[in-house]
């Protein structure tokens, strides 16, 4: 069965009656700098307490990572590393494309450690399909299978699909403030 994410959004009529505001298929966002990776940007909120009720809220899906108090809700599809090509093209042009389509995404990556990154977010994640390894900065890994839930607390990490099929993760990221580390 094909993976075709769909987003249903509810709201209210002026009299307070609940309604469906939209029901849409989502197209993936891809960038040449990260072949084999596709994002479905579902929803997000600004860095304030959202309001609900009579006025429908509009999503804030970019920048990619929310600032403190903001949220992001997305799906990420990871193709198997064994079939993922290296980026092709001028690195400056690839970076510019990523900065335009997914601002903030590449800024957290570590050039000397491909895939390793740290974000100022508290992330809730669940593996929906496939298998994915979560690696931490000490080299330890855990295999995620469908139904595995992760609470990521701003740690340095990387995702690896060493399987034979695509893996899909669902993420809710909450923008956070980084506490200085004790020396």
From TrEMBL:
Please give the name of this protein: Cupin domain-containing protein
Determine the domain of life of the protein's source. Bacteria
Q: Give every Cupin type-2 domain span.
A: 116-172
What organism is recorded for this protein? Salinactinospora qingdaonensis
The record ties this protein, via SUPFAM superfamilies, to: RmlC-like cupins
Q: Name one Pfam family in it.
A: Cupin_2
């Amino acid at each position: 069965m094909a993976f075709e994410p769909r987003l249903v959004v509810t709201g209210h009529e002026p009299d307070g009656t609940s309604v469906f505001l939209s029901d849409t298929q989502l197209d993936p966002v891809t960038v040449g700098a990260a072949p084999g990776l596709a994002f479905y940007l579902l929803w997000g909120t600004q860095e304030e307490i959202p309001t609900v009720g009579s006025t429908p809220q509009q999503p804030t899906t970019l920048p990619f990572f929310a600032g403190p108090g903001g949220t992001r809700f997305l799906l990420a599809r990871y193709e198997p590393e064994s079939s993922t090509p290296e980026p092709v093209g001028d690195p400056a042009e690839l970076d510019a494309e990523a900065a335009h389509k997914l601002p903030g995404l590449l800024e957290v990556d570590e050039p000397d450690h491909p895939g390793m990154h740290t974000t100022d977010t508290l992330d809730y994640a669940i593996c929906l399909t496939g298998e994915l390894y979560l690696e931490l900065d000490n080299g330890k890994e855990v295999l995620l299978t469908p139904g595995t839930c992760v609470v990521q607390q701003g740690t340095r990490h990387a995702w690896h699909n060493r399987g034979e099929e695509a893996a899909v993760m669902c993420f809710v990221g909450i923008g956070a403030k980084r506490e200085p580390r004790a020396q």
